Amino acid sequence: xxxxxxxxxxxxxxxxxxxxxxxxxxxxxxxxxxxxxxxxxxxxxxxxxxxxxxxxxxxxxxxxxxxxxxxxxxxxxxxxxxxxxxxxxxxxxxxxxxxxxxxxxxxxxxxxxxxxxxxxxxxxxxxxxxxxxxxxxxxxxxxxxxxxx
Length: 149
What we know:
It is a single chain. This protein is 68% helix and 3% strand. It is elongated. The protein is an all-alpha fold. It has helices spanning 11-35, 39-61, 91-114, 118-146; strands at 8-9, 72-73.
């Protein structure tokens, strides 16, 4: 997903962006699986990939009745964009990128949850927690596979 300087979005616009973010995260994990032959790492990365696809599906199932309703504002420190894909796609760099993506996703979901109610808030809170867990798992995996580099 490309960067956006617009900090105001409707719930419908946010939903579309978040689905794109989740699908891009799933592709990131697929790329990481190609970079390592470690069976344990690939098992974890495969699980994370499937979970990201499930997140996109949950977001896709969320009904937005009025496409112009629910204007949300995100502060500058919670940019509605993901870090750029690294040019150097070695295992360590891509794992660091995945950690950064997960941290950014958690910030976005946490901010969205603080401005939402009902089913939207519940989903955003749940997804923020999942993304925090993903961040921890990928960070641990990075340390195991690269010695923290």
